[in-house]
Task: inverse folding
């Protein structure tokens, strides 16, 4: 019989995320409620994931209309659908083999969409050239990231490739590195400075890592997931200089670029900064940036599509990136690829759908910004909780000051204290949040992650749950 | 690996280059989209730019993509998907009630009633239930548990995941995976990527590509010298060969897997594509359970299916599933863990799969149209399968086994020694040389047999039977004429 000892050790080594445990608990509670069990709440509210549609946010009408027509081309004749929708659908169908979204595409994605993305990047970055050949589409950004991680992976133990990884980081990252065979080299983000990146910390991390592994890459998310920090020009430049000096491949997760709301803050892409630096940087620093449909504005997580732009990567290496895309997931779903086109190339002023589109975008933006402000104020007033001002992204990441009795209890139960807190909150109030340790935290500080791109009413219920849970039995002692 | 470069010094060696890249990745190749396809795309580009060629278009008979070749999607499937994507259409009375009902059911199972929400990693629960019911119905009532169903991003995703799970050990203990020659090159590429050992077993071309247990035994015994055989992969109906295994053969393979303690991976994505008289699809699971508890309680197996083939041809949706049988619970926990890393399979693909396993029933409004379209697609493929075999067998030097199922033909071609020598001179494998010449002269893109594996000294090509029948007739004629010319040129 095939037993555990026969399972790929690399697979066995993939750490189990506490996220799964909490999800399973949430599912059980939901099932109990369906079966008639009485709880102090009527349903579970799950804001642990960045899943805006699940939380009641609406998809962009233009996107869904165009996709529907692409799925059922008979709808091209449906006059009640705006003309710009139908024209765009027709254009996109022409880019599909056999005029069908059911055909395979090239392994790196539909060329027309890659071109749209390249044009978008160029517009966004004030004219810095971007080429379709450097843009590769994948089924969600994890797939793209896995391809790059696999390419980097080599060696064992002290010679194993290492990747500098921010703490906290996106919760799927540690498992992904485990699977890819790359060592996670944690660098702390500075909580007391709004989760900024600190150069000294980067140097210190690198120094301690060398000898224990071979660091060859640095990962950073901007806007930060889960922190909500948005880097300014200087900070980005410093990281680029660091990566150049220390010969690290730069992997930049820019998935939440459309969700910046902080006062005086804007999204600046790493590529843009790179290309304004001297040639010795702009021609040599190797950079891979990631984007996806799972953004604040689109929220189309279930369509599974994203892309990466590779800058200054050798053509020979690109060939293998393409081969890996061929076999690692054998194609991004076509509906997802088309949605990427709609994301980077939305309705323009003068288009029939422009007004509706703009209203929807503005509503999402306003909801995010208002929720962020409301939640931050509320959480900062709760005893034993403090929240750094977030400037972007779709999460808040408040710090928990847990009473010693909870920490002790957690030790006995052999779970992380913030996971225990989340479990208790879930059972008591029906509110499901993310526990800080699943974002890599090991500093002995405890945090929570909550998605704030939700309906305002939902947010109020979450805050009410947190507020009353906190005041009830578990007083703080910071 | 060099240490810190002083800030500003111009070290031209890139951080990520061919030399310091993952050595396993460098060994990975994938013939179906390889060199000949690249050349075909280049020629297409040249044609668009107005370059004169002896042909007006490139016919890409290399990849099993039905829609690209003009096959129409099934109306019902697309209606439900459109309704799921833009639920306002539920108000449109041009959509049949059964389509609306299915769409509503799927949307109810999605977070926030949107296909844009993540699903659980294993796939939407009610869809897995539907898959389990479909399997039960197909297999004469043998129970299927939704818990053992994993929805995936196409069958390929599930296949690679299983291989990843099962590869372990070092040196002589390294996992060996039995794979047929010829085979669908995803397997060899994945095994190269995982640094697993490929154990090749040859299908018998003279017996219509059937499987011979003696050959399996030979292969596994030889392999035990240098690796630890743990898995056997079988594709039924076959790719590229199209053979449909007999029930007896499937029993024999199951028996063999039990005796040799092998995990059985049954790739059944072409299960509806069976054309030849006297051939029938038998699912491995059904046969396993009909062999009684001695086998059904012990043999470990995973079977795979997808939305890309059969009568749907919806490759672009990346829909699929696998069913795992008799898997050790701890191993299954590892499987569940690994699928969660990539979050979830695409939700539209899950919805599509739901339609495939839950099609219109005789008492429903869409039934007649659905059956008409489905029957037409399969009949068309059957006709093309027969035609292909017939025409190729009229050409001296081309020997074509009956295309019993799937979507391809894999004829043997006799190449004159002079051609083989010329190919070697140019640094090409002989059948690649042949296919390249065919591409340049006729604009027809096939995949050389070397991409799939073949017996030493034999040559083949794989052609899909997907082009519309009138075009297929022309293609068959052109290849036939080319073959005769080629043989004369190099005699």
Result:
């Amino acid at each position: 019989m095939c037993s555990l000892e026969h399972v790929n050790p690399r697979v066995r080594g993939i750490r189990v995320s506490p996220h799964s445990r909490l999800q399973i608990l949430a599912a059980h509670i939901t099932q109990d409620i369906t079966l008639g069990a009485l709880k102090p709440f009527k349903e579970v509210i799950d804001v642990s994931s960045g899943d805006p549609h699940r939380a009641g946010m609406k998809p962009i009408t233009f996107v869904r209309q165009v996709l529907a027509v692409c799925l059922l081309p008979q709808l091209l004749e449906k006059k009640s659908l705006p003309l710009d929708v139908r024209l765009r659908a027709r254009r996109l169908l022409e880019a599909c083999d056999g005029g069908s979204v059911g055909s395979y595409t090239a392994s790196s994605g539909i060329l027309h969409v890659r071109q749209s993305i390249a044009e978008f990047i160029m517009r966004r970055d004030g004219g810095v050239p971007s080429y379709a050949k450097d843009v590769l589409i994948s089924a969600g950004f994890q797939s793209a990231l896995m391809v790059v991680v696999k390419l980097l992976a080599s060696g064992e133990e002290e010679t194993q490739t290492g990747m500098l990884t921010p703490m906290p980081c996106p919760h799927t990252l540690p498992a992904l590195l485990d699977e890819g065979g790359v060592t996670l080299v944690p660098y702390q983000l500075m909580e007391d400075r709004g989760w900024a990146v600190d150069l000294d910390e980067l140097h210190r991390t690198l120094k301690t890592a060398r000898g224990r592994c071979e660091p060859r890459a640095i990962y950073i998310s901007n806007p930060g997931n889960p922190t909500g920090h948005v880097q300014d020009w200087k900070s980005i430049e410093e990281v680029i200089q660091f990566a150049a000096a220390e010969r690290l491949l730069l992997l930049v997760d820019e998935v939440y670029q459309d969700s910046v709301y902080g006062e005086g803050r804007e999204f600046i892409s790493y590529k843009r900064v790179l290309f304004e630096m001297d040639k010795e940087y702009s021609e040599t620093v190797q950079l891979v940036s990631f984007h996806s449909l799972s953004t604040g504005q689109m929220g189309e997580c279930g369509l599974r599509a994203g892309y990466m732009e590779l800058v200054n990567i050798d053509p020979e290496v690109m060939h293998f990136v393409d081969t890996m895309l061929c076999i690692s997931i054998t194609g991004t779903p076509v509906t997802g690829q088309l949605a990427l086109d709609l994301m980077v190339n939305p309705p323009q002023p003068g288009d029939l759908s422009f007004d509706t589109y703009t209203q929807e975008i503005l509503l999402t933006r306003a909801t995010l910004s208002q929720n962020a402000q409301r939640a931050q104020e509320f959480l900062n007033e709760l005893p034993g909780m403090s929240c750094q001002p977030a400037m972007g992204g779709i999460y808040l990441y408040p710090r928990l000051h847990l009473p010693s009795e909870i920490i002790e209890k957690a030790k006995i139960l052999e779970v992380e204290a913030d996971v225990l807190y989340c479990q208790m909150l879930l059972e008591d109030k029906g509110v499901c949040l993310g526990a800080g340790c699943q974002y890599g935290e090991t500093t002995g500080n405890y945090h929570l992650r909550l998605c704030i791109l939700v309906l305002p009413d939902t947010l109020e219920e979450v805050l009410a749950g947190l507020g009353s849970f906190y005041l009830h039995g578990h007083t703080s002692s910071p | 690996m060099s240490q810190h470069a002083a800030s500003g010094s111009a070290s031209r060696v890139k951080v990520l280059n061919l030399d310091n890249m993952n050595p396993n990745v460098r060994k990975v190749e994938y013939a179906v989209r390889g060199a000949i396809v690249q050349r075909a795309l280049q020629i297409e580009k040249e044609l668009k730019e107005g370059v004169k060629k002896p042909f007006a278009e490139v016919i890409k008979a290399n990849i099993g993509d039905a829609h690209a070749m003009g096959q129409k999607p099934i109306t019902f499937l697309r209606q439900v998907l459109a309704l799921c994507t833009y639920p306002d259409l539920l108000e449109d009375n041009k959509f049949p009630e059964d389509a609306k009902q299915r769409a509503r059911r799927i949307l109810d199972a999605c977070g926030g009633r949107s296909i844009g929400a993540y699903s659980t990693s294993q796939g939407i629960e009610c869809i897995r239930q539907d898959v389990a019911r479909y399997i039960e119905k197909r297999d004469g009532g043998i129970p299927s548990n939704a818990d053992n169903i994993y929805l995936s991003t196409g069958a390929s995703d599930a296949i690679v995941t299983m291989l990843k799970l099962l590869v372990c050990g070092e040196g002589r203990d390294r996992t060996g995976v039995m794979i047929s020659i010829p085979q669908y090159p995803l397997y060899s590429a994945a095994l190269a990527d995982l640094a697993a050992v490929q154990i090749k077993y040859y299908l018998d071309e003279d017996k219509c590509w059937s499987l011979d247990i003696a050959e399996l035994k030979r292969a596994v015994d030889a392999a035990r010298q240098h690796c630890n055989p743990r898995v056997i992969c079988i594709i039924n109906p076959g790719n590229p060969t199209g053979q449909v295994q007999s029930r007896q053969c499937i029993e024999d393979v199951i028996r063999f897997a039990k005796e040799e303690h092998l995990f059985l991976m049954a790739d059944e994505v072409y299960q509806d594509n069976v054309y030849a008289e006297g051939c029938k699809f038998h699912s491995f699971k059904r046969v396993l359970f009909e062999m009684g508890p001695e086998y059904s309680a012990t043999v470990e197996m995973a079977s795979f299916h997808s939305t890309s083939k059969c009568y749907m041809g919806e490759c672009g949706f990346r829909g699929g599933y696998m069913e795992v049988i008799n898997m050790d619970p701890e191993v299954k926990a590892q499987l569940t863990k690994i699928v969660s890393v990539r979050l979830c399979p695409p939700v539209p693909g899950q919805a599509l799969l739901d339609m495939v396993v839950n099609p219109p029933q005789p008492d429903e409004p869409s039934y007649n149209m659905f059956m008409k379209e489905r029957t037409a697609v399969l009949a068309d493929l059957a006709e093309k399968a027969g035609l292909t075999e017939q025409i190729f067998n009229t050409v001296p030097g081309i020997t074509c086994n009956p295309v019993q199922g799937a979507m391809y033909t894999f004829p043997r071609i006799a190449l004159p020694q002079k051609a083989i020598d010329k190919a070697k001179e140019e640094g090409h494998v002989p059948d690649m040389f042949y296919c390249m010449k065919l591409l340049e002269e006729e604009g027809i893109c096939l995949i050389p047999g070397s991409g799939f594996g073949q017996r030493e000294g034999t040559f083949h090509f794989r052609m899909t039977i997907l082009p519309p029948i009138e075009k297929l007739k022309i293609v068959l004629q052109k290849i036939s004429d080319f073959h005769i010319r080629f043989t004369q040129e190099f005699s």
User: Anything to note?
Assistant: Chain B has a mean pLDDT of 93. The CA atoms of residues 45 and 51 of chain B lie 9 Å apart. The longest strand of chain B covers residues 228-235. The first helix of chain B runs from residue 23 to 26.
